[in-house]
Amino acid sequence: MTHSEIRAITVKVVNGDLDIAAYLAMPVAETPLPGIVVLQEIFGVNAHIRDITERFAKEGYVAIAPALYQRLAPGFETGYTTEDIKIGKEYKAQTRAAELLGDIQGAIDYLRSQTPVQDNPIGSIGFCFGGHVAYLAATLPDIKATASFYGAGITTMTPGGGEATITRTPEINGTLYGFFGMEDASIPAEEVDQIEAALEKNKINYRVFRYDGADHGFFCDQRASYNEKAATDAWQNVLQLFREKLD
Question: Is 145 helix (H, G, I), strand (E, B) or coil?
């Protein structure tokens, strides 16, 4: 069910002694709804991420986008210039997997305690840096459906160091959909194959979508790499995943 009337505000979620800014959007309704955690690119909780959060609210979800750079740069958001990318990557390099998972759990706890989500299942979606983080977050017990968009480095590293995130595939809960552009230089086709092989080997419920002609960031309509055909198809598959597993 689509909702024309939504409300969106900035809230604070808690991880230990850290207050994390988060963008929250939900339909104007009091009935319990499924919740979705939206995980940012390296560019912060910017206009694109806020728009996605609102799009989910219009589809009948309570969506929250926590600021994953809160420790490093409170209030950070930027665009897509070469300098913006450089700064975003510098912050990404300082993140740590355990802290990110704690921040996401804080967002989940906020959804459960402060919004109409109550005990409904939780979904997660992430893009770019957030696509990698979404793969990590799929290991959290509360996450039952994950959409991971072009998360670089899943097969080769993990935030903060240690074994590559792909080694945690056996811990994934629920269903994971992965979305990749076949023109994405940051994620070679063989790495996509490795991710799919790991999901298959560990009997994870999954689908992997490969979009020919699509580059990194193909879902973002504010980037030069936006690919309308791939983005439209991916969005329909995301909605199918969440409706099937969360509604």
Answer: strand
Which helix (H) or strand (E) segment holds residue 22: the answer is: strand 18-27
Helix (H) or strand (E) holding 83: helix 82-92
- Whether residue 138 contacts residue 174, with contact meaning beta carbons closer than 8 Å, is answered with yes
Q: What does DSSP say about strands 6-15 and 35-39: parallel, antiparallel, or unpaired? A: unpaired
Q: Give CA–CA dist 170/203, Å, rounded.
A: 8
Rounded Cα gap, residues 48 and 52, in angstroms: 6
Nearest residue to 115 (alpha-carbon basis) of 25, 19, 210? 25
Residue 1 binned pLDDT confidence (cut-offs 50, 70, 90): low
Q: Report yes or no: 64 and 38 within 8 Å, Cβ to Cβ.
A: yes
Round to whole Å and give the CA distance between 5 and 10.
17
Distance CA(247)–CA(242), nearest Å, equals 7
Question: Catalytic residues, which ones?
Answer: 128, 184, 216
User: Average pLDDT, whole number, for the chain?
Assistant: 96
Joined together, the tokens standing for residue 140 give: 């959290």
For range 202-223, the mean pLDDT: 97
Under DSSP, the state recorded for 40 is -
